[in-house]
Write a structure and sequence with these properties.
CATH superfamily: Alpha/Beta hydrolase fold, catalytic domain
Number of domains: 1
Shape: globular
Radius of gyration: 16 Å
Distance between the termini: 21 Å
CATH class: Alpha Beta
Structural class: alpha/beta
Oligomer: single chain
Number of helices: 6
Helix content: 25-40%
CATH topology: Rossmann fold
Length: 218
């Protein structure tokens, strides 16, 4: 089923299906090829996927010029407002930055003892940015201990923001499940010599994410 624009959102899948709120990455908005393929693929597998854009990306789209992401507090405030408007129960997540913000939001709501965290049943991150590029010492995992729901990370094994070698050396909480897409980069794209294709990896990620969402919400 093609994605349908509903106000400021894009929605794929049947309206009564389990809901996954899907936030974009730092450099491309909710209409990127990756976001579109994943949303439509999950929609076809029985998941309602709702995409939205952070304010900086809305401004970037309107002005047609590059604009860096806002700082985390502003992004988290917007993500929280989106969830309030959509309503739960649901699973949340995103591509890269979007997945990181989803996990940080769960941790923040738990620390604040905000009851809205009860509506969030899981997190899915497509290509989690474990560190800034070229700075593996600056890990973005401190909040993981406060992520109070199951979290699925779908990661390319040679992702420059968190490859298999680095992540396998981390002591991650038991509720965080990292699944590897062999030879995939940050967009899950493998090299030709690997014998895999980008479409295969995206299809596999769609299947795993859809199964996770339905398991947590059905």
């Amino acid at each position: 089923m093609p994605s349908v624009e509903t106000g400021r959102h894009l929605e794929a899948g049947a309206s009564k299906s389990p809901t996954f709120v899907f936030a974009h990455g730092a450099g491309a908005g909710m209409e990127s090829d990756f976001m579109e393929k994943v949303a439509e693929g999950m929609g076809a597998l029985g998941v309602r996927v709702i995409r939205f854009e952070f304010p900086y990306m809305q401004i970037r789209r309107a002005l047609g010029s590059k604009r860096p992401p806002d700082r985390a507090p502003k992004l988290l405030e917007h993500y929280k407002a989106e969830l309030k408007a959509i309503g739960g129960p649901l699973v949340i997540g995103g591509k890269s930055l979007g997945g990181r913000m989803a996990s940080m939001l769960v941790a923040q709501l738990r620390e604040e003892q905000d009851s809205s965290v009860d509506d969030i049943k899981g997190v899915v991150a497509f290509g989690y940015p474990f560190h800034p590029q070229g700075k593996p010492e600056n890990l973005r995992t401190d909040h993981f201990e406060n992520v109070s729901v199951p979290m699925l990370v779908l990661q390319g094994s040679r992702d420059k923001l968190g490859d298999r070698g680095l992540i396998n050396g981390l002591a991650l909480p038991s509720n965080i499940d990292v699944r590897w897409l062999e030879d995939g980069d940050h967009d899950l794209k493998p090299r030709k010599v690997s014998g895999y294709t980008h479409d295969q990896h995206i299809s596999q990620a769609i299947k795993m994410a859809s199964e996770f969402v339905k398991e947590k919400l059905c």
